[in-house]
Amino acid sequence: MKLELRGITKRFGTFAANDHIDLVVGDSQVHALLGENGAGKSTLMNVLYGLYEPTEGEILVDGRPVTFRGPADAMAAGIGMVHQHFMLVPVFTVAENVALGAESTKGAGFLDLDATRAKIREISARYGFDVDPDALVEDLPVGVQQRVEIIKALVRNAKVLILDEPTAVLTPQETDELLEIIAELKASGTSIIFISHKLREVKAVADVITVIRRGRVVGDAAPSAAAAELATMMVGRPVSLTLDKAPAQPQETTFSVRDLTVVAPTGQRVVDGVSFEVAKGEILAVAGVQGNGQTELTEAILGLHRQATGSVMLDGEELLGRSVKHVLEAGVGFVPEDRSHDGLVGSFSVAENLVLDLYDRAPFARGLAMSPGRVAAQAKDKIEEFDIRTQSADELASSLSGGNQQKLVMARELSRPLRLFIASQPTRGVDVGSIEFLHRRIIAERDHGTPVMIVSTELDEIMELSDRIAVLYRGRLMGIVQGDTPRDVLGLMMAGMSADEARASAAETYEQTHRASDDTPGETHA
């Protein structure tokens, strides 16, 4: 099936999320859509899937114009979509989720799940999915849940499958398995639109790469194109994809967490007896698939979880149980994962947001009143230093792009003397060029002698920044390893293995792979 988008434009008010985009997806082709967060990739696919109506332009299937008034129309035309956040009902079985929305009945109107189970088994066997139709979705690993979403689309005879940031919640091993599945789907005649901002994966899987920047197509590239070339197309200027950093020079240990436990309202231990320490002058990175306790861990350290038990010590002072204000005043800089909800006040100006944790202290306050001149001077310096793209320091923080909001939060937290710096998803939604700058600032804070703790779901970022890596799985610490630990070992730890088990398993896999390579028929061995 050939799919074509001509001049697709989608406006929200005066903002053009998509601006006259042309795209052609050929038969049995993996077409990657590459661009930074906020470039317009997901909006374009929501138009294609019938979730948004285009402001201008047309969609053609096999040369015929079509109009989609909803996902049902798109599915009827042979287009399926696996969203970044899965559309599954956790308490339903796999078969019930697959049947949902396309129910078949038998007898007196009873749901015919037997037919659905048969289809699931047939598709699962064809592609090696290994999915049990009667398993509850909530009991399945994230990678298997994603396969259920793919099965849903294939049951509905999808000829073009849209995968929106499909590796965002996967371990490295699950990512490799997904790329193999994509190759099998392509071989069977299914076309794939692979949406991502990850250069490594796009280069590995794509036949054609289309780069989108600020809602417009800036060009096509072959997967053989250099990563630096693709990054330049994404950002619009040359950027460096490597971070030069000197080895860490750890000093005394000033921050420690002991047996930290956080219990959710459901009674589940979302952080389960976690212990670690961070020395001055080193970066401890916390890795794990999103939703394995990282958020609750950082929030407990900050003082946001009253039901947390254990110990959080900074320079000999117990912080657990103290207020957020006290923790910040103790010298903790904190960048939350959700900047818009927890990191800034959208109705305050850029200048006001830059002094949120200092507004009541000199030199930004005199008595009970703020000092506007000092606040304005601080804003001018930090806007320039961190390249915050804003019309003025008086502009509302809510009007900034997501990447500039992130730079605003980072600028505020790195603008005062710190005894501990914690950043959760420090470069989420930031363009490649700004990532380079923010990574350098984090390294500079480490080299200044501050203990630094980074939480990220981007494994490349973890490996780039870390001196040591702590891996969380379902709230438990699987181990702490050195920053140069191989990706496959980290992936196994992210799936629930201890550090020792992961190393042994990775070594065994390596040995088996090379033994199979050595035993290739036709070769002669000594």
From TrEMBL:
SUPFAM superfamilies documented for this protein: P-loop containing nucleoside triphosphate hydrolases (SSF52540)
Comp. bias (Basic and acidic residues): 511-526
Keywords: ATP-binding, Cell membrane, Membrane, Nucleotide-binding, Repeat, Translocase, Transport
Gene3D superfamilies assigned: P-loop containing nucleotide triphosphate hydrolases (3.40.50.300)
Bilayer topology term: Peripheral membrane protein
Keyword Membrane: yes
Alphabetical list of PANTHER family matching this protein: CARBOHYDRATE TRANSPORT ATP-BINDING PROTEIN MG119-RELATED, GUANOSINE IMPORT ATP-BINDING PROTEIN NUPO
Protein name per UniProt: ABC transporter ATP-binding protein
Species per Swiss-Prot/TrEMBL record: Sinomonas puerhi
